[in-house]
């Protein structure tokens, strides 16, 4: 087995290199620390307060119709805890009943009223309502009081975003299928729309905006349903314009790395993080989060792909990931009936199946670490389970690292056409040998292809 890279990597380290870090792995399953489930915060926004990031988005485990708006919290954008529902299905409230559409929840704090204001795209299942819904809450992740929905200034409004200026003035970003895209100024309490600040006869779906220096950057996608397209952006010095021509920011043809913009989070003074959804229409609950650093230079924005990268929110910096060592499951120790299976889409054309189950099949990897540290493990897996209306075909496994156990989610990979998927495990290792054991949680676990372990930077 390959030991975690040590000396080779130390040479790559930046001065004052990090001793420990957790990586962002775009496109992997991200298990919330306290639920054992893939994060259900699709169409998300992030609201920041007092050193904590709140990821607010849609529960999609039962498909496209409204189930709940969920809130997760994190201090580092990597380890997420589920906190609660802002709103959930409510048969006594017509907008929130079964077969309704509630998408793209966004929360802003109103500094004057002290209330948290929740903005929603509210629709009927045929998308004819095209309204904005409002709610208010006293705490960011607590229950919200739903206030109802309307068409802003009488205009259709589908996917929305919001933007708050330093002076507290806030704007609704909205797409009107009869016209195009608008920026609308909100009232002082954020509970209604006052006026149109800017409008384009151009469709930018799921608009998201960030301000860096004196420049505004607005992002949006074309209209291709759940399928991804080459998303676009425009910039201006004034919200009323003039705005630059809409243009792509990721390499054309990648369909924005198969994602749709949902939110753009400021990072430090000059940087920002692109946050998108990679939708799986046949398994919406398994839809993945594509988060990548945006490279901003004046009016130019570029998005490069990184298999993994890390961010230091406090310092406002990010860095690409280190090379990972690969531990094939077929070379690991198998016990309790876990056994080798052929797998065309796997590295080495083999994987290990029969993990979990009645016999408690287990795969144990012996991972050598050069020092103590936080690491992000990546497990490549397959799970051929059918997706039903009430599950995203997830299988759980208990992943134990040096005896510390956590439940990790492995959503169905049926929609990947035989390819493997990735699930990440945010954990810590100790200097020397670490046994990483994967066993069942309840029922069968996933079939495992390979365990990837990043190079630890151990200082010099
Ligand atoms: C932005 O443009 C509007 C409309 O032209 C103008 O009234 C406003 O003063 C401008 N704001 C700034 C900060 O220049
Ligand atoms: C992480 O990124 C590095 C380089 O940026 C790459 O070598 C490595 O394979 C990546 N690991 C995973 C698990 O994607």
TrEMBL record:
N-terminal signal peptide: 1-20
Keyword Signal: yes
GO biological process: carbohydrate metabolic process
Keywords for this protein: Glycosidase, Hydrolase, Signal
Pfam family, one: Glyco_hydro_43
CDD domains: CBM35_galactosidase-like, GH43_Pc3Gal43A-like
GO molecular function: hydrolase activity, hydrolyzing O-glycosyl compounds
UniProt similarity note: Belongs to the glycosyl hydrolase 43 family.
PANTHER family: GLYCOSYL HYDROLASE 43 FAMILY MEMBER, GLYCOSYL HYDROLASE FAMILY PROTEIN 43
This protein's name: Glycosyl hydrolase family 43 protein
Organism expressing this protein natively: Emericellopsis cladophorae
